[in-house]
Amino acid sequence: MKLNIVLVALLVLLVSTAFAGKEVTSLEEALQTPEAVTSLNLMNKGLSDLPEEIGMLVNLERLNLSGNALTDLPQGLFKLRKLKYLNLNANKLTSIPTAIGNLKSLEELEFGFNSIKEIPKEICLLTKLTRINAARNYIAELPADMVKLNVLSIIDLSYNQFVVMPAVLTLVNNLKAIDLSHNRLLTQIPDSIKSLAVLRLLNIMKTNISSTRIEQLKRFLPNCTIMI
Fold this sequence. Notes:
By secondary structure, the protein is an alpha/beta fold. It has helices at 2-19, 27-32, 211-220, and strands at residues 23-24, 39-41, 62-64, 85-87, 108-110, 131-133, 154-156, 177-179, 201-203, 225-227. A ten-stranded parallel beta sheet has the order 1-2-3-4-5-6-7-8-9-10. It is elongated and about 60 Å long.
């Protein structure tokens, strides 16, 4: 009996070791040893929904769900407290659940190429975020509490519906790159952008910013490359 227990324990250890650091590409495979999986890539799997069992992957750090047909996200997803990277690009999402605020370990969040109109204020609870990709949605405003994202360095807001660059971005002092390109209604950048001392790239291609304003921005941001 004791020998059997030892053998089972050894088998579990071997399986866990095999999964450690490995990118798994099947949810079924991942759920066979859920605690062993740290990286799961379900890109382009034709998924229209995701089972609640995703929440069993308690040690998951990277999750790629891009290129599917997801219209909503299960609550189980927001139990993944060790998740550092979440890719939701190119689905059919119209909103991000407020439960996103539970994922306190997130460092990179991508939800581009969807139909999202609003970023929930709960994203501002994710104070470890360094990069956000929200390109190609229908977003026109940002939550005021984004000032709390003090390690955020890259934000992609291209191909959205901004008319004015949100002033809150000028309070996110660690920003190094802002992409506002292809916001064709964008006409205004606040003077307070000059406070972004470490900003190195501002992309305003295919916007409606005047040439006069662009020259002012160049003076405000002498160490920043402005793409026009």
